Amino acid sequence: MPRKALSMLSFLSQKPGGPARMAAHDAISRSGAGELVVIDVREGAEVAASGKASGALHVPLAVLRMKCDPASPECLAELSVETPVALYCASGGRSQMAAQMLAGLGYLEVYNIGGLGDWQAAGGAITR
Predict the structure, then answer these.
(1) pTM of the predicted model as reported, rounded to 2 decimal places
(2) Is the pLDDT of residue 54 over 50?
(3) Burial zone of 70 (CB within 10 Å; 0-12 exposed, 13-18 middle, 19+ buried)
């Protein structure tokens, strides 16, 4: 499916309930193929205790706006509003808030994976 069509489907799926949920196995597959950036929004102590999804960026929710806003000089080079992004936390609450924030910043395709446990249960590797 062409990117424009995917973006439109994503946009439609994000209304009115906010960013869509993505199954962890889909996130694992798409991130492995380089089609998706995965972001862990948990605090540093949580990542230190349990590790993070292999290949995920660690951007705590408290600094997400600064690190992900395309207008910010602190915006991470790995991010683009046109690149699909999927977020997770411990259980899915913070990642839903983060996904809404990114959608508000203009990211075209934003998903909530849920929690790290969802990633792990779907066979995703963990990096410690």
Answers:
(1) 0.87
(2) yes
(3) exposed
